[in-house]
Structures are given as C-alpha cells and as structure tokens.
Amino acid sequence: MDIVYILDIIGVFVFATSGVLTAIDNKFDLVGSAVIGFITALGGGTLRDIMIGQTPVGWMYDVNYLWTILAALILSYLFRKRIVKLRRSLFVFDTIGIGLFTILGLQRTLATGLDPAIALIMGMVSAVFGGVLRDVLTNEIPLIFRREIYATACLAGGLVFLLLTKFYDHELLAMAISMGTVFIIRYMAVRYNWSLNLRARN
Amino acid sequence: MDIVYILDIIGVFVFATSGVLTAIDNKFDLVGSAVIGFITALGGGTLRDIMIGQTPVGWMYDVNYLWTILAALILSYLFRKRIVKLRRSLFVFDTIGIGLFTILGLQRTLATGLDPAIALIMGMVSAVFGGVLRDVLTNEIPLIFRREIYATACLAGGLVFLLLTKFYDHELLAMAISMGTVFIIRYMAVRYNWSLNLRARN
Amino acid sequence: MDIVYILDIIGVFVFATSGVLTAIDNKFDLVGSAVIGFITALGGGTLRDIMIGQTPVGWMYDVNYLWTILAALILSYLFRKRIVKLRRSLFVFDTIGIGLFTILGLQRTLATGLDPAIALIMGMVSAVFGGVLRDVLTNEIPLIFRREIYATACLAGGLVFLLLTKFYDHELLAMAISMGTVFIIRYMAVRYNWSLNLRARN
C-alpha cells in the first residue's frame, strides 16, 4: 500500500496548498493560513472519523501529515506566484486527492462494519468537507453547494468502487478505476462548465 | 415504541424538507440541497451523539433515515410551490418534530448515565442545532439566536419530561405531555410575535 | 490541583462573559447569548475532547461549568456597562484563561498517549477554538486568523511547558512559567499592535 500512502500525502499537500492560498487571498496571517491549510487538508477526514467513532482521529497517529502541511505552508508563502501559475497541474493532483480521499474514507467506514450506503456518504464527506469547513471559516457559502459536480463525482467514484470490490477481488485495481471515474467526471465537468459559461455570456 | 419511530421519521422528513427549501432559496444545486436537507434533519442528533460519545452516530444504523431525506428532496423539487402553501401544516409537524427530537435526545443522553441538566441541554441541541448548522452553511446568523422561543420551548418541554418521569412511571404519557408543552409554547409564541410585529410597525 | 480548578472556573467565567457581550452586541436574545457564552467558554475543549476521543466531553461531568456560565450570563445582563469598563482587568483574566486552557488541553491530550506535537496543537485548539466557533456563529471571519498572536502565544506557551516537564519534574511550576510565557507574549503583542496601528494611520 506504499503507493496509496504516497498519493495520500500528495493529496494532503495539494489540499493544504489550496487552503493556504485561499487564506492568503483573505489576508490571513501565517498562523491563520496554517490553520486553514490544515482544515482544508484534514477537516473532511477528521469529521468522518469523529462521526464513525474512530478517535483519536487518524492524522493524530502520523506526524508526517503535520510536516506535509508545514511544507505546503512554507512553499506557498515562498513561491505563491509560481504555484498559482501551476494551477493546471494542481488541478490534476487535487482531483487525484479527491478520488483517493473518497475511496480511503469509504474503506475506513466499511472497516467499522457500517452499511455501504453510509460508507458512500462518508467517502464523500472525507473528500469534500475539508473544503466546506474552509469556506465556512472564510465566511463564504461553500462552493460545493453550487457546483454539484464535486460531490457527484465522489459519489459516482465510490459507487464504482463498491460494485467492483463486490464482484472482483482486486482492491488496488478497483481503487485505480474508481479514482479514474472521479477524475474523468470532474475533467468533463470543467470542460462542460467552460462552454456553459461561454453560452451564458452571449 | 412504533408510534415514536413513525413520529421520528415524520420529524426527519419535515426538517429535511425545510432544509431543502432553504437550499433552493439560496440557489443551491441538487447535491447542495441534499446536503443541507440532511444536515438540517440529522445535524442536531449527530452533534449530540458525537458529544456524548455514542458513535458511530445513530442514523448510521438505520438506512431509512437516508430514504426519508431522499424522499423529502425529490418531493420538494417536484412540488415546491404546493409545499410552500402547506406551511401551516408543516409548522405543526415541525413543532412535533422539535418536541420529539428534544425528548429522544434527552432520553439518549440520560441512558449514558449523564446528569439530567446535561440531558436537558443535549435534548435542546438535538432539536435546534440542525437548524443552526443549516444557517451557518448558508452563511446566515442562526435564526435561533434571535428567536429565543425555539430553544426555550425545548428546555421547558425537556424539564416537564424530567419532572413527570421522576414522579410517575408512564414514559409515553410523559412524552406526549412534554411534546404538548413544546407545541403550546411555540404556538403561543408565534401568535405573540405576530402581535408584537404589528405593534412594532406603528 | 485546587488552584488549577479555580483558575479553570475563572477562565470559563471570563470566556463566557466575552461571548455573552459579543452576543448582546449582535442583538441576540437571552437564550442566544447563553448559547454563545457557552460555546465561547467550552467550545474549544469540546472540540479537543471529540477529536481525541474523550467522550462524553469533559464539562459533562461537572455541572459547575454550567453554573459558572449562567452566572456570567446573568452578571453580563445586569452589569453590562460596568463590565465593559473593566475590559483591562478582563484582558488579564482572559489571557490567564488562554494560558491555562492551552496547558490543560495539552496535558489531557498527552494523557491519552498521543504525540507531543499533537498535544501542542490540541492545547492551542482548546484555547482558541471557542472564539473561532463564536465568530463563525455570529457570521464573522474568525479574528484569530488575522491576529496571529493569540495562537502563536498558545503554541509558544505549550512548547515551554513540554520542554520544562521533559527536563524537570515540577508540573505546577512548569504550568506557571508556561502560562507566564503566554501572558507576556500577548501583553507585548497588544502593545506592539498599538504602535503598529499608530504608524499605519499616518
């Protein structure tokens, strides 16, 4: 599961970076940016763990998550302009992160013996509620509620994972396919929205 | 306890409907509306369960809650105008829901061995914090903080329940009377506010 | 540990008072003020306990916290103007409260066997997230994110406590010194900000 751990860390890094950049846009100071980066990256998983009763919450057992967020904080402050230019690459990793967080959250919920329907919801919570908490703390209506595709992609990916693991016995392959599902839906959505915007402008 | 379960489901349905209607008013999409409906209906109980350590939280053990919220979502989208016209009937069920959630939350807290004063607070949290979370997520100052009667009615109803069960051994009757207390206080409050508004307008 | 308990109660009283005054400024009613006072005083510790799995959360085992908050509520309503004039004295107790909440939160986290780095974060969460929740519920961007010194002071005080208890075996002295650290940093920060504001005005 080494590749999964590495992807997890990358996902945390990208989510934290997105949180820190939002915080800087809101003129938060260094500590405020660290808190927002932290909550964006680990808030969804924290909420999931609290609700399914897996406490102390997961990230408390692996200090690497803290170092990853600290690295995202420092790099965001040092190379902000360059990172903003990398938005396209960040989008790729962000979507990988969302897909992975969905599946990891789903697996963790299933492992406690809860119903697959609950696991599906908790997978989505893991992936998107970090962003919801970030938006609430920066006093914005959560983006997720107006751009349904984020949550929908998570639910679809989670469903694919549940179906694949039900009928086949290859979990890593199922993870790859379901994360691919999240990726494709989100990628198509961004293109679709783009043309939608063009039409709306006429 | 069949009647209690049926009232519980009706309460969840009415709360979810109120959440979905608020979400539609805020131009949230379908997924956003589902999330807000869900949180309005189950957010208070979730918060209570997390705080008193009853995790995984209660609704995770009964998928019927999910179906109920899904039904509320679909019906709210299909028959929005007709539901808005039913506001008076909704108010009745909403108040029954608040009364029931208060007592169920109180009972669940007492069952963990906590102090009745804590159970009283947790009953109120169960009944009103779903609405508080809805308001926070739609970026409004929670209504509850300016219309004290919601929370006060819960506390009064909870107190009546505690006193009745202390001196008599008939729990269902105590539930009915304390829910009636919540109902009467809220009903009178709505009338009182109405005349207050009339006076304020002069 | 009697002195610690007394300071804890004083801290809760001062935090609750600050919450109630904010609520009154926002034209919240009595119940709304009670809820905001409660969350300001006990929200940080509640969040910490939930995350580290110490549930039912701490204040549920000691009804004195409720009485303390009730006292803060009543006194704030009766003597609002006089309390506002006491702001300087309140600041002293507020900072003592922040220092104490940091150390108590840190100790409680360490006691569950978690890493000192996690305990440091949880100490900070205990001290400042009550204020964050108050700001979110009154629909403001949390002050803490723009005035880094609150959180920084907590982290510094927590670090001093960790180092002192690692090398010396006198916990009460370590508490006193680390709370003094929080106090001095915050006191200096207020003076520094003051002159900063003067400069910014030119």
Oligomer: homotrimer
**How many DSSP helices of chain A?**
8
Binned, the helix content of chain A reads over 70%
Q: How do the helices and strands follow one another from N- to C-terminus of chain A? A: HHHHHHHH
Protein name (chains A, B, C): Trimeric intracellular cation channel family protein
Membrane topology (chains A, B, C): Multi-pass membrane protein
Transmembrane segments (chains A, B, C): 6-23, 30-47, 59-79, 91-111, 117-137, 149-168, 174-194
Domain Glycine transporter (chains A, B, C): 5-80, 92-165
Question: Strands, helices and their partners?
Answer:
The structure is a homotrimer of 202-residue chains.
Chain A: H1 2-25, H2 30-52, H3 64-78, H4 80-85, H5 87-111, H6 116-137, H7 149-167, H8 171-201
Helix pairs in contact in A: 1-2, 1-3, 1-5, 2-3, 2-6, 5-6, 5-7, 5-8, 6-7, 7-8
Account of the protein in words:
With 202 residues, chain A is an all-alpha fold. Chain A has one domain. Chain A has 8 helices and no strands. Chain A is globular, with a radius of gyration of 17 Å. In chain A, 48% of the residues are buried. Chains in contact: A-B, A-C, B-C. Chains A, B, C: The chain crosses the membrane at residues 6-23, 30-47, 59-79, 91-111, 117-137, 149-168, 174-194. Chains A, B, C: Residues 5-80, 92-165 form the Glycine transporter domain. Chains A, B, C: InterPro entries: Gly_transporter.
